Amino acid sequence: MTKIILEQITSIKDLLLFSSAYKEGLIKLNISKLAKELKKDRKTIKKYLNGEVPKETRKRVKYLDEHREYILEVLTDKYQSFDYIDHLFKYLKREKNIACSRTSLNRYIRNDTLLNKLFKRKKDMSFTERFETNPGVQAQFDMKEKVRLIDKNNTETVITIPTLTLSWSRYNVRKLILDTKTENLLEFLALSFEEIGGVPHELVIDNLKQFVEKPRYKDNEAIFTNKLIEFAKDYNIKIKPCMPYRPQTKGKTETQNKIVDQLKNYNGKYKDIYEMHEKLEIIHKEDNDNISQATKLPRRFLLEKEKGDLSPLPRKEIRQKYHLSLKEVHVTNESLISYKSNKYSVPRKFIGLKVGLTVIKGNELHIYYKGKIITIHKITDKLLNIKDEHDLKYEKEIKTKERTTIINNEMRNIKYD
């Protein structure tokens, strides 16, 4: 009988067909032979013959399955970049409002062969000893340079993000800039101190050429630029330069530089430079509102406690001289501004507002709104200078007769203070 049954079955589940007859004693079977042929344990064979079917493992529908296609899309995008799982998690929270934990996302990606292969995990196993400071004593300054961001028109913008980190509270101040001249960096420091409501006793800096003429070495003190010396005197702050090739000295702000890598998550999605500012503000706010791994408390909460230990700000007249000097102009209804009788476009959202102009390197016109750079133009002799991303429906090449009409329209829109 055992031989006949073996000829009729192809899997252990087929034994269920004979379970009723076996239990009623109508057939006798060689359990050991069945177990050997089916390559199963004797106890398992008996269970099936007695009709005891093990419960099948239910195929679970994972919460993140509904987002898998989107995760796959962003990880395969030729512009978007994710260096850390934490950056991907925060991006999905912002864009898709996912409700799972960071650990769940990490496990989901690691268990998915394709997603795990696409996600380039970077580990830094080096150890750096922490040096803690008292409230109000120290701030660290550093820059994340040459961050390449790409807008919807495939235009690449190379930006720099200066960061000031208070060593005790870990509170951060960040800003997007395009030009790293000394005046821009000093303005950033001045505005940062205004934001935190005071001045720390010392500032740790890297050996930037904008600030340091000769780096610090073992037996030699650093030689600072005159502009930095004047700034330190005005703000009554001690400057402490790092040793060359020793970034651990300002490890707190070095760590914070990783945060701004999240801007690359939106590559290929940006409308313009102004949206880059907006994304940085969102990322920056999240960072300061979140709990610091070092202190186990929110940075913004600790800042309020640290403010009382900061030195007071210098008087307004001193602070003002470090603010960027801009020529204020009005944006016309055509979304244009005037510079030396020629017109330059800005995004439509600034129509009717006042913006600030400054010339960089002699041939670049930088246009600001409320301290944020919103667009850049090459200075030309053309009457109209319009960028494609500003989506203005003007012809770039204008006939002589049309020039007079445009100039007359612009003259009517000029507002005199």
UniProtKB/TrEMBL annotation:
GO MF terms, alphabetically ordered: nucleic acid binding
- Sorted alphabetically, which SUPFAM superfamilies does this protein's record hold? Ribonuclease H-like
Q: Which residues form the Integrase catalytic domain?
A: 131-320
**Entry-linked InterPro entries:** Integrase_cat-core (IPR001584), IstA-like_C (IPR054353), RNaseH-like_sf (IPR012337), RNaseH_sf (IPR036397)
Q: What GO terms describe the biological role, i.e. biological process, of this protein? A: DNA integration
* Protein family per UniProt: Belongs to the transposase IS21/IS408/IS1162 family.
PANTHER family the UniProt entry points to? TRANSPOSASE, TRANSPOSASE RV3428C-RELATED
This one is known as Transposase and inactivated derivatives
- Specify the species: Haploplasma axanthum
